[in-house]
């Protein structure tokens, strides 16, 4: 731990500004007060704490990089990353709520929306008065979203929306859904669908073993009349949803490091306290190997996302670079969680420690926002010029 109490083996804090550190501390304090004391209970009971939405709004967790005139934080990408890291250190499901709202709902409305849409939706989403969701994945189209079959048909005065989306974070509790569908010419367009529109339902998906404190559902559209002014005017094609995913994946690359740090700190503490054969288990070489490898991998990932953040601040980060960091951080965190689970012995499977919850959460994080395999193939395509996944 550094002087400020953060796991920081290479003094990466030296690369942060005072503002970055203050933001990180304020989110750390928020998570300690509002999330950590309750998260085991929420996860065990598969309860989504809807009151957290307003609280996230108050603390500035929604749309930190969106300009302040629309209610956002007007912050840089390092700040955004640190916010995601601290929230996910609390729980990946809670970070999912914030990621979806900021990167997948506010970002497309800000980036692709009309001025009226920005003014109508962004302040309410930033404050947490409204919750939003992002509908891209369909029952038969996950890794291949371009194959989607949800359609908007131009009816002159309005669009008629038909189809279904699956695995949608926040959906049952959302007032607003950014939905991707094909128009009459087969082009992918974004539309803003509001709760209460006739023919629109968002049933919950039950029995998840992962992200249990995050609510997940479907989006079902049965001849939903969507007003013309709800079409996102400034983007068409797959680059629309993929642009949003770049932003969310960047946040996950930071967030997963928060999980890894939480598991590592818990394992280090436990190994120093737990005695077997008359001495702390931390004194055995096999346990030291696990801990040493954990901190090495965490440090490598911290440096990677910091550099990625600087590239993003300069507008130079590529989608492939973001894919590499998302894949690396999540895989690293899952490995750290599994090793930490073993260090905790039998205690590691209980809710007394955060490890098993983190580990199960990461099984979703390694699949959503592009699977582990797909991100590897994106790197492969980037370095060889040959796409292997089509
Ligand atoms: P598939 O695409 O069917 O993949 C199955 C397996 O095949 C994977 O291992 C994959 O890597 C592999 N595979 C697929 N194609 C290839 C290929 N070409 N080459 C090699 N291997 C391949 N979606 C949203 O739109 N909005 C959300 O808010 C959202 N939230 C989610 C929340 C949770 C808890 C979960 C679990 C998912 C969420 N998703 C969301 C969906 C998520 O993005 C998809 O699950 C993901 O894209 C994978 O799609 P799939 O599940 O259909 O798997």
The number of E-state strands comes to 9
The biggest beta sheet reads: 4 strands, antiparallel
Uncertain regions spanning at least 5 consecutive residues: none
Q: How large is the count of helical segments?
A: 10
Helix content: 40-55%
How widely separated are the two ends? 45 Å
Q: Cα-atom Rg, whole angstroms? A: 21 Å
What's the layout of helices and strands?
Blueprint: H1 18-44, H2 52-59, H3 77-90, H4 92-112, H5 115-127, E1 132-135, E2 151-154, E3 158-169, E4 176-182, E5 188-194, E6 200-201, E7 216-227, H6 239-273, E8 275-276, E9 279-280, H7 285-313, H8 319-343, H9 355-365, H10 372-384
Parallel strand pairs: 1-4
Antiparallel strand pairs: 2-3, 3-7, 4-5, 6-7, 8-9
Helix pairs in contact: 1-3, 3-4, 3-6, 4-5, 4-6, 6-7, 6-8, 6-9, 7-8, 8-9, 8-10
Bound molecules: flavin-adenine dinucleotide.
Organism: Hymenobacter lutimineralis
Catalytic activity: glutaryl-CoA + oxidized [electron-transfer flavoprotein] + 2 H(+) = (2E)-butenoyl-CoA + reduced [electron-transfer flavoprotein] + CO2
GO biological process, one term: fatty acid beta-oxidation using acyl-CoA dehydrogenase
Describe this structure in words.
Its cofactor is FAD. The protein has 10 helices and 9 strands. The protein is of the alpha+beta class. A hairpin with a 2-residue loop joins strand 8 and strand 9. The longest helix has 35 residues. The chain is globular. The mean pLDDT is 97. The chain binds flavin-adenine dinucleotide. The site of flavin-adenine dinucleotide has 22 residues, from strand 1, strand 3 and helix 10.
């Amino acid at each position: 731990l550094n002087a400020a109490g953060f796991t920081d083996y290479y003094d990466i804090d030296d690369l942060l500004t005072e503002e970055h550190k203050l933001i990180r501390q304020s989110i750390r304090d928020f998570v300690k007060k509002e999330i950590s004391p309750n998260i085991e209970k929420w996860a065990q009971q598969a309860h989504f704490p809807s009151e957290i939405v307003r609280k996230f709004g108050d603390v500035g967790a929604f749309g930190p990089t969106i300009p302040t005139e629309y209610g956002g934080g007007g912050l840089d990408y390092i700040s955004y990353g640190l916010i995601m890291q601290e929230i996910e250190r609390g729980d990946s499901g809670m970070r999912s709520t914030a990621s979806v709202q900021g990167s997948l709902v506010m970002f497309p409305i800000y980036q692709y929306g009309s001025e009226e849409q920005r003014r109508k939706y962004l302040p309410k989403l930033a404050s947490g008065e409204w919750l939003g969701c992002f509908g891209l994945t369909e029952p038969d189209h996950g890794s291949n979203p371009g194959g989607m079959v949800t359609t908007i048909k131009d009816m002159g005065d309005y669009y008629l929306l038909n189809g279904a989306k699956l695995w949608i974070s926040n959906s049952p509790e959302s007032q607003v859904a950014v939905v991707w569908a094909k128009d009459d010419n087969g082009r992918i367009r974004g539309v803003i669908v509001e709760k209460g529109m006739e023919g629109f339902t968002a049933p919950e998906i039950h029995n998840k073993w992962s992200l249990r404190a995050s609510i997940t559902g479907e989006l079902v559209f049965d001849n939903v009349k969507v007003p013309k002014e709800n079409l996102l005017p400034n983007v068409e094609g797959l680059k629309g949803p993929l642009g949003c995913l770049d932003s969310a994946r960047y946040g996950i690359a930071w967030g997963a490091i928060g999980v890894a740090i939480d598991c590592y700190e818990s394992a280090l503490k436990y190994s120093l306290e737990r005695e077997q054969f008359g001495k702390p288990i931390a004194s055995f070489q096999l346990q030291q190997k696990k801990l040493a490898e954990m901190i090495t991998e965490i440090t490598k990932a911290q440096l990677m996302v910091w550099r990625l953040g600087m590239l993003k601040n300069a507008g130079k980060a590529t989608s492939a670079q973001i894919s590499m960091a998302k894949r690396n951080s999540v895989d690293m965190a899952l490995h750290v969680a599994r090793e930490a689970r073993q260090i905790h012995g039998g205690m590691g499977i209980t809710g007394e420690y955060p490890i098993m919850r983190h580990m199960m959460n990461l099984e979703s994080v390694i699949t959503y926002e592009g699977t582990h395999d797909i991100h590897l193939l994106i790197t492969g395509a980037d370095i060889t010029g040959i796409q292997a996944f089509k």
